[in-house]
Amino acid sequence: MLVGLQRRLIYFPFPAEVPRAVEVVPGAGEVTLRTADGFELGAWLVPAGEPDRGMAVLVANGNAGNRSLRATVARALAKAGLAVLLFDYRGYGGNPGRPSEDGLARDVRAARRFLIDEVEVVPARLLYYGESLGSAVVTELATEHPPAGLVLRSPFVDLASVGRFHYPFLPVRTLLRDRYPLAERLASVKVPTTVVYGSRDSIVPPEQSRAVAAAAAGETRVVEIAGADHNDRALLDGEKLIEAVVELAERVCEAPRTGGAGDTSRPSPPPARPVRVEYPDSPSDGDASVSGFDRSDSAAGGA
Known about the structure:
The protein is built from 10 helices and 10 strands. The chain is an alpha/beta fold. The protein has a single domain (2-255, 272-289), classed as Alpha/Beta hydrolase fold, catalytic domain (Rossmann fold). The longest helix has 18 residues, at 101-118. Helix 4 (101-118) crosses helix 5 (133-144). It has an 8-stranded mixed beta sheet with strand order 1-2-4-3-5-6-7-8, sandwiched between helices.
């Protein structure tokens, strides 16, 4: 009973209904992800605009709402030449199951597997983008399947640290079942990383996002958006946020530095090429070039 109550305070899968992809993201296709434990999850594959950078972004949502609330960031990234996969966790967006830390880990693996196996995105051209709670989800994924680069938007040190901030008189660390030790895990992820946060975040304290950046093992860039709170538009699809994602895509695709013996620069990724996928259930025919909201007092917010 205590575990169930905790999870009702962490996960907010509302609204449950999801519109058709093409109603909110032109050109997007409806796809289905299949998890290792047998769940089918709804997802949208959004094609890249021109010029196509030949890279894809896997987006992991925050703890509230469904993928339709991330449509604007998907449109902005697609306009910048990046393909985007939006998906909902178990228990969200009409999907079966109940969310948990272990369950979300399986869900994000299904999303990655879809991009790698079915869309044929090569890992060297795949970025993970995590929104708040989703930052912990993609960081855990990266410990087993490193991406080309990692974008963490409003990340926290671990879930107990956020809980202690909001409920200082409760033994949060002792009580929590789902822990999401983001900073601890990030210390072993040696990929280029960008941390984006708002200077006035009232849900995840800015110092926690800075601590996450300090813990990163890879080359790290920190982007502070002055005056932005956790659910402000600037942290959903604002110019600086989108620029940060595009900058990381460009950075991981740069040609390696040349040098003599002992040069440790990373190898060059494979040449960019559009990745194509068919959408059999989409109203439009043919191939498409594939190139969060959380709980608060507003429509969405939280970790």
